[in-house]
Amino acid sequence: MEEIILEFLKLKTVALVGASENPKKWGNSLFKELTKKGYRVYPVNPKTKEISEEKCYPSVKELPQEVENLILAVPKNITEHVVKDCLGTGIKRVWMQKGFGGEGSTSEEAVKFCKENGIDVVYDLCPMMFIPPVGFHKVHFFFKKLFRTFPKEYHTISKQ
After folding, report:
1. Maximum Cα interatomic distance, the chain, rounded to a whole number of Å
2. Which of 29, 34, 134, 143 is in Cβ range 3.0-4.6 Å of 39 for a Cys bridge?
3. What is the pLDDT of residue 54?
4. Domain locations in the chain as residue ranges
5. Which distant-in-sequence residues (6+ apart) come within 8 Å of 152 by Cβ?
6. Cα–Cα distance between 31 and 3 in angstroms, integer?
7. φ and ψ at residue 68, rounded to 5 degrees
């Protein structure tokens, strides 16, 4: 799992499914934070054509082939459909983020699908805890590390 997270961090290009124009939505905050941290973010949302002057793609199937990383900021029932759409695209890694209060995009069915189809997957963690964490995310990371509440697969990276 550590290798997948490190590869995500190394590549500065990522697609974000659930990107939003609405400043009250997590997809908007995540889009802005990733952009601020130097990532080239490809927003994916079938309901809008543009987010922060960036072309918005209606689906992962429409993304440029060179996009290898995908973060999901959508409900888990949507995650299950999106990961299936990744087949035949350039997507090699999928991050199913965990939201505040325990909700998130992780779906056991989607994790299984990724693993069975050669797509590396990270799940049940907020990517902002690793892209270097600041503010709340830094505190969140500290407590996850302190209480070892990361899933077992993440313990080696949580020691960093």
Report:
1. 42
2. 34
3. 94
4. 2-130
5. none
6. 23
7. -105, -25
CA distance 81 to 94: 13
Looking at domain 2-130, which CATH architecture does it have? Answer: 3-Layer(aba) Sandwich (3.40)
The per-residue pLDDT for range 48-102, each reduced to its tens digit, is 999 999 999 999 999 999 999 999 999 999 999 999 999 999 999 999 987 655 6
Whole-angstrom distance, CA of residue 101 vs CA of residue 109: 21
Helices (H), the chain: 2-10, 26-36, 76-85, 108-116, 135-146, 155-158
Sign of CA dihedral 138, 24, 18, 51: negative
Nearest to 89 by CA among 6, 9, 15, 5: 15
pLDDT of residue 159: 39
Tell me the C-alpha distance between 113 and 53, whole Å: 33
Q: What pLDDT is stored for residue 9 in this prediction? A: 85
